[in-house]
Design goal:
Blueprint lengths: L10 H5 L2 E3 L6 H17 L1 E3 L5 E3 L2 H18 L3 H17 L4 H10 E3 L9
Helix pairs in contact: 2-3, 2-4, 2-5, 3-4
């Protein structure tokens, strides 16, 4: 069962040619996930854990976004860091956008997959 957003074997790496860098769910990686969640919400679809396209609605957007806080507490175990993740998640859910500072963090955690064809463009 592949990860949807994180890692070289994720659904996003396979089909979107980008993914969230692997590692614990810190603020940087949470921002990157939220960026991709917003992208999915805007286009109206995402992937399930078998990399099949499914509908991305408001409920799934909120559930996936809030799950990042739980993962942070399990993986990072830093109360202050995870509270920052929680605040960012609630901000994004309420406003449907990332704050500017989080956009920069997100971009630093998203890896673009390049292929040999990219060198000939």
């Amino acid at each position: 069962m592949p990860n949807i957003y994180m890692g070289r074997d994720s659904c996003y790496a396979r089909y979107e040619k980008m993914y969230v860098s692997s590692g614990p769910m810190d603020l940087r990686r949470a921002a990157a996930h939220l960026y991709l969640h917003l992208r999915d919400l805007e286009r109206g679809w995402t992937y399930d854990h078998e990399c099949r396209r499914i509908r991305m609605d408001e409920e799934l957007f909120k559930a996936r976004s809030r799950y990042l806080v739980k993962i942070c507490y399990e993986q990072v175990k830093d109360e202050k860091e995870c509270e920052k993740v929680r605040e960012l998640v609630e901000y994004v859910i309420a406003r449907k956008r990332l704050p500017t500072w989080a956009q920069e963090l997100a971009e630093s955690a998203i890896v673009k997959v390049s292929t040999i064809e990219d060198f000939f463009k």
